[in-house]
Design goal:
Length: about 120
């Protein structure tokens, strides 16, 4: 996941891009777990326009969006913050929330338990 700063976020907003920014801090344990889940999501769906940002060095973005706690994923659609994800529930949940940025929202993770013939 590429690390962005305030200037890169501001430029992407000016260009009306669609992307998501994962705000974190280095000593946040929940952020580390969320980061691992996002890494798995990126492995499954490498086209996700997902960036990371250390909230300690992104005061302008944190203030502009009034981010109240971290971890926080800000979903930006065409240059406008559309959603704020504070509860990182599962990889499947993250993919469902972020896939629309790539136009692949119809896909989902399928577990073997979704098929009754595969269960004992």
């Amino acid at each position: 996941m590429q690390e962005w700063n305030d200037d890169q976020i501001k430029q992407a907003l000016i260009e009306k891009q669609s992307f998501a920014v994962f705000f974190h801090t280095p000593f946040c344990g929940t952020c580390k777990v969320a980061g691992r889940m996002l890494d798995v999501a990126l492995t499954i769906e490498p086209e996700l326009p997902l960036k990371a940002c250390n909230a300690n060095y992104a005061g302008a973005s944190v203030q502009k969006w009034k981010i109240s706690s971290i971890p926080c994923i800000v979903v930006v659609e065409k240059g406008i913050a559309a959603r704020f994800i504070y509860a990182v529930k599962s990889v499947d949940y993250l993919l469902a929330e972020l896939r629309h940025l790539t136009g692949m929202q119809h896909l989902r993770i399928v577990a073997s338990s979704d098929f009754p013939e595969n269960t004992p």
